[in-house]
């Protein structure tokens, strides 16, 4: 079993334990803490990026702060200044979290574009080198003959595909 599957199984076990506890024992969300060494963000291109656990700890503090916000809405506040400070802390934590994830997404998009450009450049370079070698007569005859066979085969496959379409 992979590391990811073990983590998923561990989380499912914790959730099932919490579901079977009586209601008074699981009164707060803050009791349910999951220690995750890394958080993996999935993006549209299905690549994964490791994010340090420091960012998940800010999420845990945000959950605690959200709990304070719930208390503020449901009950009469005990200390308005403290509750207001906790609410502001929640907002700033969530804003920074969203900003960091947007920045990570932008970095991934930029890195993907750079890698694509680099591979295109390398392919053009290889094709240019091969054409130059052919023009200078530096390639062996058997290589050139193989290239001719490959081109003929590709043309034949293309013709067969066109015939099958009609």
Q: What would the average pLDDT be, to the nearest integer?
A: 70
Number of helices: 4
SSE string: HEEHHH
Global shape: elongated
Number of strands: 2
Order of strands in the sheet with most strands: 1-2
Quick recap of the structure?
By secondary structure, this protein is mainly alpha-helical.
Structural summary, described in words:
By secondary structure, the protein is mostly helical. It folds into two domains: 1-34; 35-136, no CATH class. 73% of the residues lie in helices and 6% in strands. The protein is built from four helices and two strands; from the N terminus they run αββααα. The chain has helices spanning 3-20, 53-74, 80-136, 141-165, and strands spanning 38-42, 48-52. It has a two-stranded antiparallel sheet with strand order 1-2. β1 (38-42) and β2 (48-52) form a beta hairpin. α2 runs antiparallel to α3. The longest helix is centred in the middle third of the chain and has 57 residues, at 80-136. The radius of gyration is 30 Å and the shape is elongated. Residues 23-56 have low confidence and may be disordered.
């Amino acid at each position: 079993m992979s590391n990811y599957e073990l983590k998923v199984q561990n989380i499912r076990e914790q959730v099932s334990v919490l579901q079977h506890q009586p209601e008074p024992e699981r009164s707060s969300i803050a009791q349910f803490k999951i220690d995750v060494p890394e958080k993996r963000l999935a993006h549209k291109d299905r690549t994964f990026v490791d994010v340090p656990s420091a960012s998940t700890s800010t999420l845990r503090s945000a959950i605690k702060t959200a709990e304070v916000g719930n208390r503020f809405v449901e009950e009469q506040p005990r200390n308005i200044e403290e509750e207001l400070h906790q609410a502001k802390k929640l907002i700033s934590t969530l804003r920074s979290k969203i900003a960091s994830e947007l920045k990570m997404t932008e970095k991934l998009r930029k890195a993907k574009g750079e890698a694509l450009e680099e591979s295109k450049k390398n392919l053009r370079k290889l094709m240019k080198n091969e054409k130059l070698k052919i023009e200078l007569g530096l390639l062996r005859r058997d290589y050139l003959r193989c290239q001719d066979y490959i081109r003929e085969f590709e043309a034949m496959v293309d013709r067969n595909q066109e015939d099958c379409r009609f």
